[in-house]
Amino acid sequence: MTQANHRPAGTAGRITVLGLGDMGSAITRVFLDHGYRTTGWNRTASKSAPLAAAGATVAATATEGVAASPLVVICLLDGTAVDEVMGSVEAAVAGKVLVNLTSGSPGQARANERWANEHGAEYLDGKIMGDPPYVGTPHVVLPFSGSRSAFATHEQTLQVLGSIAYHGTDAGMAAVEFMAQVAVAYELLIGFLHVLRLVQAEGGDVAEFAERIAGSAAAYPPLLTSMGKAVRTGDHPPDLGSLDVQAALMDDMIGHRESVGVEAVRMREVKELMERRIAGGHGAQGFSSLFELLAGRS
Predict the structure, then answer these.
(1) What is the pLDDT along the chain (298 residues), one digit of tens a residue?
(2) What's the pTM?
């Protein structure tokens, strides 16, 4: 429902969204629903029509869109599209706050900030962890980094998009957070699929096994937290037991996988790291201590 009675007053109530794909359109609708005077621009003009019907002002050009508002949200396909659009609006960005929500690397975010500062604009980099239908709910998480003053000024506005967090003045840190979060998911899920292959190869019911694993997953948050602290301090207690004890499992783990034709590369990596750590006199430490051997590994 549109919260017209909460429309921000003055120039603070004007926002431009550059990019009206699925995510950009969702962002625009949330701003409209919260009473912001929202201008939208999209390279393919036809995507603007539903938003115009919902109350958005449609800019004919990206430059016109930037000129319309003090706060400019960029949500495009990729970094190449961002470069192209920013290059086309450089004459209009002075005095603006640019908030880039397009996926990209930490290096791209830092380069974008340098460009913005050189052209008289403040820059915030942000990433969207969630799907378009959930924008505007706590189920979408948005890390931000970059200009502290810009974040402080527009924090209340950005909060309407979801659960937000500020990761400091280094513009690249929101991308670091995003990529690390996504990487954990992929590492976990590909490992899980290999394990399901193992269970299936032995005649087990993969759905029932998955349900049991989902039930035991509650044990992992405290372990992850303690391992993060161990890596930060360099003090590695025997989290899953000592490496001396854990290493004794590895040949069986590898042999079992290979006996049923399931990939064992990760298990072999773990074994090699454990053996190196033990040989270095650290067999009493825990799994987190393997971190000390990862520098420079590809």
Answers:
(1) 333 334 454 455 999 999 999 999 999 999 999 999 999 999 998 889 999 999 999 999 999 999 999 999 999 999 999 999 999 999 999 999 999 999 999 999 999 999 999 999 999 999 999 999 999 999 999 999 999 999 999 999 999 999 999 999 999 999 999 999 999 999 999 999 999 999 999 999 999 999 999 999 989 999 999 999 999 999 999 999 999 999 999 999 999 999 999 999 999 999 999 999 999 999 999 999 999 999 865 4
(2) 0.87
Summary count for the chain: helices (H), strands (E): 11, 8
Dihedral Cα 33, 36, 40, 46, nearest 10 deg: 30
Examine residue 180 and state whether it is found in any structural domain, yes or no: no
The parent domain of residue 54 ranges over: 4-170
Phi, psi dihedral angles at 272 (to 5 degrees): -60, -40
Question: Among positive and negative, which fits the CA dihedral 183, 240, 219, 251?
Answer: positive
Q: Please identify which residue in the block is written with the tokens 């409209």.
A: 32
In a domain, 20, yes or no: yes
* Sign of the torsion angle spanned by Cα atoms 131, 135, 138, 143: positive
Alpha-carbon distance of 273 to 252, in angstroms, equals 16
Amino acid identity at 267 = M
Residues 10 and 112 in one domain: yes
Contact 26, 133 (CB under 8 A): yes
